[in-house]
Amino acid sequence: MVKVIEVSDSTYARLRKLMTVSDTAEIVIARLLSGATDIQSDLRQSKNDIPKPISASRIRRDRTADLEFYGLEIPNLTHTRLLVAYINDAEVKPSKWNQLRNMAITRLVKEQGVSAVKGLSGVVAGSRKESGFTFYPAHGISIQGQDANDAWRQTIEIARKNRWQVEAMCEWRNKEEAEYPGKTAILISRA
Prior knowledge:
Layout: H1 9-17, H2 25-45, H3 58-62, E1 67-70, E2 80-87, E3 90-91, H4 97-112, E4 123-125, E5 133-136, E6 141-144, H5 148-162, E7 166-172, E8 184-189
Parallel strand pairs: 1-8
Antiparallel strand pairs: 2-3, 2-7, 4-6, 5-6, 7-8
Helix pairs in contact: 4-5
């Protein structure tokens, strides 16, 4: 039996971004549910191995926001500016989406070596300077700039796989195209 589900325009717009040409909304929802089930399974299997978060939310302790998002619940970050961010207890400076992502990538290389970034979108071993890449000689990698949405997605993907806690506070610019014009949000991806 087919069920009808109502979603807001903004949620449907986010769903559409995940669709390929041949996907239907049902296929994308099934794929998302499958991923959520995998995460729950991973958590059940390793619940005793998961370290406690480094600290309670540093951002929530010091600031308030209009909205909060957790884990894989990701709003459209187009037209946002990053106000403050942490990976575990290390503050990201300057507070920019790409700097947050770059910090996650360079930390991964420090902890696991250059081979750990193989297959990551927008990251190559060695020096590359065209197409928006920046070379990080201390790490032997080049990282390509990304938009806010892709930078956050990749950051939390890396954090989840490495059991890091990532927190960010952002503000949507007062633009009609922004998902939440003029609002602030705290985004938290726990270890």
